[in-house]
Amino acid sequence: MQFLWPQMLWLLLSLPLLAAAYLYLIARRKKIAFLYASLALPRAVLGRNRLRRHIPPLLFLLALGAALLACARPTATVTLPSDTITLVLAMDTSLSMEATDVAPTRISAAQQAARDLIVGLPASVRLGIVSFAATATVVLPPTDNRQYMLDAIDRFQLQRGTATGSGLIQALAVLFPDDGIDLEAILFSGESLAPGPGGRSLAEAAAADAVRKRDQEQPAAQPGSYRHGAVILLSDGRRTTGPDPLDAARMAAQRGVRVYTVGFGTPQDAVSAVSGLSFYMQLDEPTLRAVATLTDGEYFQAGSAADLTQVYRRLSARFALERREIEVSALLAAASALLLVAACGLSLLWFRR
Fold first, then answer.
1. Is the full-model pTM beyond 0.70?
2. Number of domains, the chain
3. Do 90 and 62 fall into the same domain?
4. How confident is the model at residue 198 (pLDDT cuts 50, 70, 90)?
């Protein structure tokens, strides 16, 4: 538990002072009782039930403590059903996904796990799908139509190259359509400004400069603070082209978007023959971990279809329930009022005062 006004906690020091004053008054009444010649009078004053007479003051003290805690505005982390969020699944569709180390192939296993994810998604989740190889493509804009999602999974086309950074940037463009994130403009941002062959057009240059300026002017959000969406990025190898994934992760972190990264396949180096061509495959776990860390997300390693399905189930459960920090001052104030009513009621019932 944390407090928005922790300085108000100093008021709690009054509680032991009040308890000490109460004990002093009890001891003083005992001394006065011994001045009477008859023991009947002090018994009437002190009461027949020694425990009962202390209950109302104790309840009053607890009520005062709860009220003072409420003044400090405590907050607590609770798990609540999540609001409607947009999830973007960015999937690696490079040729290495045809490798058979995950039966029947990596891409078939990944597609089946994605179908299971779609079936198990909470109703509050909209899903967009991005595929990336040498470049990134929006396969499906965000939608809540489950059949559209399943059909999009079957439309993946494998290509050469692995542009992990492009996949993440395109996912951000899908998540923030009004931010003007233009992947093509970003890809060309380091080339010559001269229009024509070998350089960017003036429109591309202007778009890239606008995106860069907007990112610089936009106040950076706390990583992981964006509650309306997230990105799941699955890759089975190292980046071979496109922007640095860590730069793309910083763009996501600046917007507060969590990126959950999944390393799919065996982490050991391997050479695989796909479509008559030999490919060197190496899962880039350090980069995927760094992307997740920068964005306050989490990295998962899935070495089999069952592992990937389990990862997606865990993520689906997270999107169904959301942990939030809420103020609980009202609850403590209500508890204080109930304790105070109980103290007054018992005092009137038992002692007529």
1. no
2. 2
3. no
4. very low
